[in-house]
Amino acid sequence: MKTIQKSAKLANVCYDIRGPIMDAARQMEEEGHKIIKLNIGNLAVFGFDAPEEIQQDMIRNLPNSAGYSDSKGIFAARKAVMHETQLQGIKGVTLDDIYLGNGASELIVMATNALLDDGDEVLLPAPDYPLWTAAASLSGGTPVHYMCDEAKGWMPDLDDIRRKITPATKAIVVINPNNPTGALYPKELLQQIVAIAREHGLVIFADEVYDKVLYDGARHVPIASLSEDVLTLTFNSLSKSYRSCGYRAGWLVVSGDKKPAKDYIEGLNMLSNMRLCANVPGQWAIQTALGGYQSINDLVAEGGRLRRQRDLAHELITAIPGVTCVKPQAALYMFPRLDPKIYPIEDDQQMFLELLQETRVMLVQGSGFNYPDNQHFRIVFLPHEDDLREAIGRVARFLEHWRKRHGA
């Protein structure tokens, strides 16, 4: 019998956030086990409800949502995004420069498909949000990872970026605030990345979906606000700052010098038209979200739930022998390191599969974020404080037993 194979384009694609460990967890849940999930930033699951006014706007506009919208999105939502760019200091953005999508994820795939030919290279951070590497590969491109320096708070290594630029390099991805490390990049570093992109004619893909999830008074600088000449595509969504993951509402903003990119923008328009339009009910939430009360500020302020849970998770994980972690300035994650002298790990996916099976706690190994060692993992600190204490306590006991088994 002839077997049916998956496309060869998927050979270099992985998304371990929803990968083999999650498959194992699903099987365990079907067998009646309760799993504590520290693997995915799905806020609503952990009691972070979408603001009620966003829900009400969607409900009121459902009668107007049965038909297709403009392929780029409804006017009111795109106008709200345009006003947001003005507040952020991003110049020259018109309604035609804004595309609405089914979350930022769809727009990331659309933007890479429109840009890349076979063999084109894209610079991506290591660690990265793995959708970017997958999208580059599926588009026929070659992902090339530049290192972020843990010793410097997970800042991008500018020299490594410069070393890895070739004649085939078309774009650089900047994830700021960063997933999975929680790093926030200062203005001076972003200006240097802009200068590198300008020098080599690179498109900047700016993933800024956590731009309002900031701690300790930190301030986010949109990289698109730092130039008027470098073509920059900025991606954002309702999923995180507005706790509306399932509404699948995101936006893409094209800024900088668009004249040399006329053909590329035509490609974006073609792909936007091909998918007809984004989810219309979700689009109605955007104007209210951007213009309304920013309740995320209460969650990240001192005493706010996200701030408390970040502090607790960091305190608990760094109390484990041989575990260090840069404290995140932003986002919903941290990326701890296991000392290789104490934890000599050959296969990190297998280790965290064992951890799941023994502790009923689900984490994602560092290799799932295209980081080239076996010593890291990502923690999502969204569960309530009691669940965080329980989960990290189980991880601590697992690691203690692991050290004993391996004589470390």
Can you give a write-up of this model?
By secondary structure, the chain is of the alpha/beta class. Helix content is 38%, strand content 15%. It is built from 13 helices and 15 strands. It has an eight-stranded mixed sheet. A three-stranded antiparallel sheet has the order 11-15-14. α4 (103-115) packs parallel to α5 (130-138). The longest helix has 21 residues, at 385-405. The protein starts with 19 loop residues before the first helix and ends with a helix.
Q: List low-confidence stretches.
A: none
- CA distance, first residue to last residue: 50 Å
Helix- and strand-based class? Answer: alpha/beta
Percentage of residues in helical conformation: 25-40%
List the helices and strands and how they pair.
Blueprint: H1 20-30, E1 36-37, H2 52-61, H3 75-87, E2 98-101, H4 103-115, E3 121-126, H5 130-138, E4 142-149, E5 155-156, H6 158-163, E6 169-175, H7 187-200, E7 203-207, E8 232-237, E9 250-255, H8 262-274, H9 280-291, H10 296-300, H11 305-318, E10 323-324, E11 333-334, E12 337-338, H12 348-359, E13 361-362, E14 364-365, E15 377-380, H13 385-405
Parallel strand pairs: 1-13, 3-4, 3-6, 6-7, 7-8
Antiparallel strand pairs: 2-9, 4-5, 8-9, 10-12, 11-15, 14-15
Helix pairs in contact: 1-12, 2-9, 3-9, 4-5, 4-8, 11-13
Brief description of this entry?
This protein is an alpha/beta fold and 408 residues long. The protein is built from 13 helices and 15 strands.
